């Protein structure tokens, strides 16, 4: 085991995959210069000995023009003709420019060709929300892609998960989209330096508890864990479950965690309407309704554009306080330091009733 950052774990997984299979290539904007920190050599700069370009050459590390539709289309074609590309698309907000390639080519080609073609390509992108990067750079668009059959959706929250899930993604014969929350890039933990893979559709229980369950996604996961720790000091025992992949989704794991406590809060940094939290809430209500002791609560980002103002933006996303307040409301406890009202981003009752939340 060795301590790795989130980005370091991704770099380690990419290097393992490239050493193991010469069909694995990396393409994207500025990957040759290691601008985003996942194609370097143990943190060394482009000029230092040992970066990916020097180790694998330009045939396997290739810069691309700033054209997401071209990048995604080229990667799909390369995958269909025998390579296994890893594509660095930088900002998740830029995926919109390549929607036709994602939806009509990557997702459908196996079906359209009667199973004679596969599209083994991994698309990595980073969600820069919470960093005051403005409306054009702060999206968390994974729910849009959950709605596209044929795509697998991965949202790792910890370095060890990022490494193991990326190795599984490279092995997949279907297109995989990995969404990385940039607020997690600097997080560190001990990671196995040996090869390992984490199967898709298998979630992770981060805390065990008996009073309430938090199902958290991506950047909301560490906040959910912090909320659970704070609630434990108040005598409220909370289970925290991270599905890790949204397609396929660990439905059985979510339902078991929900039924165990009967009180469920879903924390999701994406927008509220038709988000991952909505899908998870629906599954819980549909399948374990009889076990519920309180309504399922969602802590999400409101359905608004993301402001540039740091003071405004930081109020929008699920955080340890809003998640903890939702749990307290679910178990009938008063909010910490509050007057009995519950402040839940994306779930304000008055805003919902008047439509102002849209």
How many extended strands?
14
- Assembly state of the chains shown: single chain
Order of helices and strands: EHEHEHEHHEHEHEEEEHEEHEHEHHH
Structural class: alpha/beta
Please indicate the percent range of residues in DSSP E strands (runs of 2 or more): 15-25%
Mean pLDDT: 91
What's the tally of helices? 13
Low-confidence stretches are 339-358
- Terminus-to-terminus distance: 46 Å
Report the helical percentage.
25-40%
What strand line-up does the widest sheet have?
3-2-4-5-7-6-12
**Main sheet: strands, sense, barrel:** 7 strands, mixed
Q: How would you describe the shape?
A: globular
- Alpha-carbon Rg, integer: 21 Å
Detailed description of the structure:
By secondary structure, the chain is α/β, with parallel strands linked by helices. 34% of the residues lie in helices and 19% in strands. The chain is built from 13 helices and 14 strands. It has a seven-stranded mixed sheet, with helices on both faces. Strands 9-11-10-13-14 form a five-stranded mixed sheet, sandwiched between helices. It has a two-stranded antiparallel sheet with strand order 1-8. The chain is globular, with a radius of gyration of 21 Å.
